[in-house]
Write a structure and sequence with these properties.
single chain, about 375 residues, Butyryl-Coa Dehydrogenase, subunit A, domain 1, Butyryl-CoA Dehydrogenase, subunit A, domain 2, Butyryl-CoA Dehydrogenase, subunit A, domain 3, 3 domains, 3-stranded mixed beta sheet, globular
């Protein structure tokens, strides 16, 4: 019988069309050749590898699922595969692309004016303009409806006051997509970060997503022209639709981190000799490795089905929540198991498991905690809102 790929036991690759496979392979080569040599040191130093941005943009990975304006117009499965391969390198890489694409470019594309699209999307696709997404607030966390940041009309401008917390790319950004309460409900604004009264403070001493820029944003009477207000959406529908786009990518990303951890554990267990035989020859180790493979395979099938539904215009937010909950929990558990299989070596950055494990502690929290997604599924099943 033919041998199976230990990282793809159900041959998900065979379910991809030629263009999807080419995208996966191209991003995989980029991660192997350009990203992975940098990521351990970047994590150790607490810096994002900005030197990779030009090539990320040149490959068409920014706004890849958007049509026009210099964007690649790829399908949802291709975007998922991009996220999977980038997170195989590091969650910080996937987070950078996810925020730029799904949380910044998407709302301009979906809710912006023609002038806003022409002005911002082409340079964002080229990586010349970096964006960040301002929704979460210091007191609010999982309750965006309790928004304190507010914008008041003043002639042809809006005056913005408030603060946002845990903002990926905040210190890198040239523009921030900021959601604020107005007299007409929650609205979105394209805030240029060189505006007087705007301040981004990077958060240091992180033990997770260290190879990513995470910031606090402060708005002290920041004047935003009305032409920078997203005109075609009001209410929580705007930011929540952006989160659905990003969460879809997150369902794929942790598959990559789990695959990286399993590959590392398989190699280590095959090479490591203990009590005069390979570690991988022990039943206990094989059972653990097999269980990791089962979890990864389940997650792969879940995300592929979700991607096909999304491409057909049939994906439901509850399905995205279920996949985000399942797949991030899967990857976190796999990373912890792999770290343990590696023994003492697993706590060093010579190996990837501890880096992925620490990163996934953030991924399981942001864009909807595990509990939030469980309650989304519970509401769908019962019809009762338990938030």
């Amino acid at each position: 019988m033919r041998s199976l790929n230990p990282l793809d036991l159900f041959d998900i690759n065979a379910e991809l069309d030629e263009s999807e496979r080419m995208i996966k392979e191209a991003v995989g080569r980029f991660v192997d050749e350009k990203a992975l040599p940098l990521m351990p040191a970047c994590f150790d130093q607490g810096r994002f590898p900005t030197e990779l941005i030009p090539e990320i943009a040149e490959m068409g990975l920014l706004g890849s699922s958007l049509e026009g304006y210099g964007c690649a117009g790829l399908n949802a499965v291709s975007y998922g595969l991009i996220c999977q391969e980038l997170e195989r390198g590091d969650s910080g890489l996937r987070s950078f692309v996810s925020v730029q694409s799904s949380l910044c470019m998407y709302p301009i594309h979906a809710f912006g004016s023609d002038e806003q699209k022409q002005r911002w999307l082409p340079p964002m696709a080229r990586g010349e303009v970096i964006g960040c997404f301002g929704l979460t607030e210091p007191h609010g966390g999982s309750d965006p409806s309790n928004m304190k940041t507010h914008a008041k009309r003043d002639g042809d401008d809006w005056v913005l006051n408030g603060a946002k917390m845990w903002i990926t790319n905040g210190g890198l950004a040239h523009v921030a997509i900021v959601w604020a309460m107005t007299d007409e409900g929650i609205q979105g604004f394209i805030v240029e970060t060189d505006s007087p009264g705007f301040e981004a403070r990077d958060i240091h001493a992180k033990m997770s997503l260290r190879a990513s820029v995470t910031s606090e944003l402060y708005f002290d009477n920041v004047r935003v022209p009305d032409e920078n207000r997203l005109p075609n959406v009001k209410g929580l529908k705007g930011p929540l639709s952006c989160l659905s786009q990003a969460r879809f990518g997150i369902t794929w990303g942790p598959i990559g981190s789990a695959q990286a951890c399993l590959k590392e554990a398989l190699d280590y267990a095959g090479d490591r000799e203990l009590f005069e035989r390979a570690l991988s020859a022990n039943q206990a180790i094989q059972i653990r490795l097999a269980d990791m493979s089962r979890r990864i395979t389940t997650a792969q099938l879940l995300s592929l089905r979700l991607g096909r539904l999304k491409d057909a215009g049939e994906a439901h937010p509850t399905q995205i929540s279920l996949a985000k909950w399942n797949n991030v929990r899967m990857a976190l558990d796999v990373a912890r198991e792999c770290r343990d299989v590696l023994g003492g070596s697993g706590i060093t950055l010579e190996y990837a498991a501890i880096r992925h494990l620490l990163n996934l502690e953030s991924v399981i929290t942001y864009e909807g905690t595990e509990t939030v997604h469980q309650l989304v599924v519970g509401r769908e099943l019962t019809g009762h809102n338990a938030f």
